[in-house]
Design brief:
Layout lengths: L6 E5 L2 H11 L3 E5 L5 E4 L5 H13 L11 E5 L3 H12 L20 H16 L3 E4 L16 E4 L16 E7 L2 H9 L3 E2 L1 E5 L3 H10 L4 E4 L15 E2 L2
Parallel strand pairs: 1-2, 3-4, 3-9, 4-7, 6-7, 9-10
Antiparallel strand pairs: 5-6, 8-11
Helix pairs in contact: 2-3
Length: about 240
């Protein structure tokens, strides 16, 4: 007996999703694909809250989430203070056995993923970024998939950090001057799954929310915030 398939659901990379659509013919397809989450920080944001949200969003589950903080856009007036605070807080993130309660993050999923993180770091450094913390494989663990939490500053839109999901424990920091510049940087990617905006100005929050080309915009919380009663989906290639 043959059992028919009425709908295909897929979560994963965009190229795989496009191939599924090609093969699905007339069947209904539900896709949730690449993310490249953007965290936009205005200079009037709750500083301690946004530092905690940035660190959590970049490192939770070793950054291997579709709604990870893949890019941090910090206003130039708070950039230096914010970068220093993220470095200090990242030093407290404990890498270790994920089955131990004292560990904050564990290893990456596989070797190709670890190599992708390294490739993004190398690309950033070649184009002028500065790795101010971590960014290397950790030693003394059962496998080579344990990766030090990394903070990367001076990231620019032409780097792989802003074009592909890194999917690793990396906090890439970009700088902007105006709100419209932040929107241009945030939207300069094929992906449009989720974003977060930190500001105490409600008008600015809604201005950004209306113009960010994503399926979900979180205000004053991490991109990883889940609200199970609202629709979930992305824009563009997500």
């Amino acid at each position: 007996m043959q059992i028919g398939c009425n709908r295909i659901c897929f979560t994963g990379e965009t190229k795989t999703g496009e191939e599924i659509v090609r093969l699905a013919a007339v069947k209904k397809v539900l896709l949730e694909e690449g993310g490249l989450g953007r965290l936009v920080i205005l200079d009037d944001a709750n500083f301690q809250k946004v530092v905690e949200d940035a660190v959590f969003g970049c490192y939770y589950n070793v950054g291997q989430r579709c709604v990870a903080n893949e890019r941090i856009l910090a206003h130039e007036r708070i950039h230096d203070r914010f970068a220093d605070a993220v470095v200090a807080r990242s030093r407290e993130v404990k890498l270790g056995n994920p089955f131990e309660v004292t560990s904050d993050i564990g290893p990456l999923n596989n070797e190709p993923q670890a190599q992708k993180v390294e490739r993004h770091l190398e690309d950033g450094v070649e184009k002028g970024a500065k790795v101010v913390l971590g960014g290397k494989r950790a030693t003394g663990f059962p496998s080579h998939l344990y990766f030090q939490p990394a903070v990367v500053d001076n990231v620019t839109p032409d780097m792989l950090f802003n074009r592909e999901e890194t999917f690793g424990p990396v906090a890439p920091i970009l700088t902007f001057v105006t709100v419209d510049e932040a929107i241009d940087i945030a939207n300069s990617t094929l992906y449009g799954l989720s974003a977060s905006v930190h500001t105490n100005d409600l008008n600015t929050a809604f201005y950004l929310a209306d113009r960010l080309k994503v399926g979900q915009v979180v205000i004053n919380d991490t991109i990883s915030l889940w609200e199970y009663q609202h629709p979930w989906g992305g824009a563009k290639k997500s």
